[in-house]
Structure formats: structure tokens, C-alpha cells
Amino acid sequence: MSTARFKGKWLPWLFLLPTLIILLVFLYYPVVQTFRLSFYRVAFLGLKTKFSGMENYLNLLHDTGYHQTIVSTVLVAMAVVIVGLGLSLLIAMIANQKIHGANIYRFLLIWPFALSPAVAGVVFLFMFSPGFGAVNYLTSVVTGHELNWLGEPKLAITLVIMASIWKNLGYNIVFYLAALQNVNTEVLEAASIDGANTWQRFWRVTFALLSPMTFFLLITNITYSFFDIFGMIDILTKGGPLDATNLMIYNLYRDAFEYYKTGLASAQSVILFLLVVGLTLIQFRTSGRQVYYGG
């Protein structure tokens, strides 16, 4: 069998050149600059820089407010990942049933993923706003008083978690549905004949066969909960009340574009990057061992 070959040694690189230029300008150069600026004091709009060594990192190390930001970020990420994946799997299993109009139900479950985080934030803002929000109206009818979702720290962070889970629900359901439709039914039938009950068939057979997809979604949802949650916070709470929803990605944004602390924001970017990479490596070392790739 013959294979196509380029006539010149440089022709393949010529075809790749536009992509390499875009990656260099919009990805690699900003990454390098972020690491570099994390060791500098940067004046307004970067007009002047002064090397400061580890000063930015030491300031963050001794900042108790930033410590709380990290704790809040990790807790929100855990809630979004664990609750989001569990709920997505449950809904996907229900949607996988052979019922009339199943395709319509699946489409309605998936469509929230098509919305941007900002649009999803606006939807929840209107639903939970004091005075005219639909959820607050129903709450006042049932309980006799409204809940201040945007003014109470615990309620505000709960709202951000709920909105983030809802926004990413469709993404998770799509992949779980695809995985469920490829599960070998003969294995489930064999388990049923061997006397396994519904829970045993799910946990020991179905969930084991879904482990590659679960592992993939675990990594993507961790990334989502640390980075893509920004738009939700900016629309709903803007980091408040009392910095309850001031997560790492939003704190970084405020320091960079509101307070113009570019060096400090760059250091936060590096910390956030290393934190996500560290969590991902831990997942590969622990959960990755439990992934079953058999037929």
C-alpha cells in the first residue's frame, strides 16, 4: 500500500505555520509572560516592571483572605464535581430507558450546555433575585418569607454551585448517555442470571464499565469548576457577599483588571495552574487505577 509523501522537507512545516503562529501568539507567549511577571512588580498597564523575586508569592502565602479563597474554591469544586457527576449519571440512566419520545427528552436535558456561563448566570439571577425572582415568589408562597439568595453568604455560594452544576449537566449527560448505550447488555443479563440484584448490577457491572467515561468527566469537570465558573460568579454575585463567592479565578480577575496588580495576579495564575495540574495528577494516580477498559 502506497503512502502519500511530501516532496519537500519544509512543505509540512509550511502547512503547519499558521497554526503554530496562532499557538505561539495566543497560548505559549501569554503562558511564558504569566510565569515571568509573577516575579515582578508591574506598574499600571505594564508601563514599568521591577524584579521582586518571590515577593508576590510570599504576599499570597501570608494573606489569610487568599487562604479562605483557596478553601472556598476547593469546596465549590468538590460540590460541582461530585454532585454534578452523580446527578448526571442518574438522569442519563433514566433518559436511557426505551420510552416513547425519548429523543425529545434527551434533547431537552442536553440544551443547557449550549448556553454560555454568562447566559446561565442571567437565568439564575432572574430566578433567584429578591422581589421579583420566580423561586423567591414560590418560596414566599410556601413558607411565608423570601430567602435572600444574593445577600446571604451561604445561600450565595449554594446558588453558584447549583447554577454551575445545571450549566454543565448537559455536557455530562451526553457522554454518559453515549457510554450507557455501548454497555454490553449480555454482561448485565449474565449478572442477573447469577442472582445479582439491581444495585449489584449497577455498581459491579454498569458503573465498572462506565469507569473510563467517569474518569474523563472527572478531569473535565475539575477544570470546569476551577476556570469556567468565572462567568457565573461575575453575573450572579461578583464575588460577594462578604467575599463568600470570591473564588480563585475571580480573585485573580479583580486583582488584574480592577486593582491592576498584574504581578500579584500572575502569581495567582501560576498557583491556580499548579493546583489544577496537581489535582489532575492525583486523579490519574488514584482514580486512574480503578478504570476498567475491558469489553
User: What is the second-level CATH architecture?
Assistant: Orthogonal Bundle
The end-to-end span amounts to 31 Å
Number of DSSP helical runs:
13
What is the CATH topology descriptor?
MetI-like fold
CATH class category name: Mainly Alpha
Rough shape?
globular
Quaternary structure classification: single chain
Q: Report the major sheet.
A: 2 strands, antiparallel
Major sheet: order of its strands? Answer: 1-2
Spatial extent as radius of gyration? 24 Å
Order of helices and strands: HEEHHHHHHHHHHHH
Overall average residue pLDDT: 87
Q: What's the name of the CATH homologous superfamily? A: MetI-like
Q: Could you say which structural class the secondary elements and strand pairing correspond to?
A: mainly alpha
Number of domains: 1
- The strand count comes to 2
Overview of this protein structure:
This protein is mainly alpha-helical. It has a two-stranded antiparallel ribbon with strand order 1-2. The longest helix has 32 residues, at 64-95. It has one domain (62-290): Orthogonal Bundle (MetI-like fold). Strand 1 (40-42) and strand 2 (49-51) form a beta hairpin. The chain is 69% helix and 2% strand. The mean pLDDT is 87. It contains 13 helices and two strands, in the order αββαααααααααααα. The radius of gyration is 24 Å and the shape is globular. The protein starts with 10 loop residues before the first helix and ends in a 10-residue tail after the last helix. It has helices spanning 11-37, 55-61, 64-95, 102-110, 117-128, 134-143, 153-180, 185-193, 198-209, 211-228, 230-236, 248-257, 262-285, and strands at 40-42, 49-51.
